[in-house]
UniProtKB/TrEMBL annotation:
InterPro entries: 4Fe4S_Fe-S-bd, 4Fe4S_Fe_S_CS, QueG, QueG_DUF1730. The keyword Metal-binding applies. This is Epoxyqueuosine reductase. Residues 153-185 form the 4Fe-4S ferredoxin-type domain. Pfam families: Fer4_16, QueG_DUF1730. Keywords: 4Fe-4S, Cytoplasm, Iron, Iron-sulfur, Metal-binding, Oxidoreductase, Queuosine biosynthesis, tRNA processing. PANTHER family: EPOXYQUEUOSINE REDUCTASE. The lineage of its organism: Bacteria, Pseudomonadati, Bacteroidota, Flavobacteriia, Flavobacteriales.
């Protein structure tokens, strides 16, 4: 796990970027992105009396991968739902802070509140925002989860690092649906992850044949990133791949029943799409 700390204050440079992104409808049908605009940019509105944003990275890069002749799922979904795993770790961290320092109050966030986690991680020196809009690091690439503690404790703050994407356009050139519409700008409404996870209605037919067998999420812009040559397998047993998932063939995915889905994906992020969502995605692929 990596840790960086920033002063809890208004994200001035992010405000116009977020406003423009929303105005261009790059969030598609993700209406929740329009909510709590001020809170997304100012943690002191989210957590009263907050002084520091502690950003944390937790690697999820696996040591084993799916059967090549299968419909593909994002690597982050190989194991147990990260929300459950990371929330437990954050509770332990807050307890440790309170035990060692005293009365410290705040809140923990794991991808479930209006917090611009990548912006805070970059501000805290944990990496830089790449051309694919993911947080990149020189040492371990980009296959990790980001979480935050927003607390009422003043700390020493870290400084941002520099951008090391250079002239590389591997992610832009490789995106199957051309969702990276400009360096550092992703049109979420064209992203395979959006279509297969966030979108609740039918996938637009104009994208038929573009998904390269991705049934849940998409890792293409990370897989092609040169910095991910430095990815190392994680050491969190709860993120270890479910062997049943890795072994599934295309036939298994096509023939999956609701009963089997509920058993195999009981503690998985994939349950977020529900059985109907996965069936819709698979039907779209063949």
């Amino acid at each position: 796990m990596s840790c960086g700390i920033s002063k809890a204050e208004f994200l001035e440079t992010e405000a116009p970027r977020l406003e423009k992104w929303l105005n261009l409808n790059h969030h598609g049908k993700m209406a929740y992105m329009e909510n709590n605009f001020d809170k997304r940019l100012d943690p002191t509105l989210l957590v009263e009396d907050s002084k520091s944003v502690v950003s944390l990275l937790l690697n999820y890069y696996p040591s084993e991968f799916q059967n090549q002749e299968s419909f593909k799922i994002s690597k982050y979904a190989y194991g147990i739902d990260y929300h459950d795993v990371i929330k437990g770790k954050l509770r332990e961290l807050i307890h440790s802070i309170q035990t060692n320092i005293g009365a410290v109050s705040g809140r923990a966030f794991v991808d479930s509140a209006p917090v611009l986690d990548k912006a805070w991680a970059a501000k805290s020196g944990l990496g830089w925002i790449g051309k694919n809009s993911n947080l990149l690091t020189k040492k371990v690439g980009s296959f990790y989860f980001i979480a935050e503690l927003i607390i009422d404790l003043e700390l020493e703050y870290d400084s941002p690092t520099t951008d090391h994407c250079g002239a590389c356009t591997a992610c832009i050139d490789s995106c199957p649906t051309n969702a990276i519409v400009a360096p550092y700008v992703v049109d979420g409404s064209k992203c395979i992850s959006y279509f297969t996870i966030e979108l609740k209605e039918n996938i637009p037919t104009e994208f038929k044949g573009m998904f390269n067998d991705w049934a849940f999420g998409c890792d293409v812009c990370q897989d092609v990133c040169p910095w991910n040559k430095f990815s190392k397998p994680h050491s969190e047993p709860l993120f270890n791949p479910n062997p049943d998932v890795l072994a599934m063939s295309k036939k298994d995915w096509i023939e999956i029943t609701e009963e089997t889905f509920k058993v195999v994906f009981k503690n998985s992020p994939i349950k977020r799409t529900k059985f109907e969502g996965i069936k819709r995605n698979i039907d779209f692929l063949y």
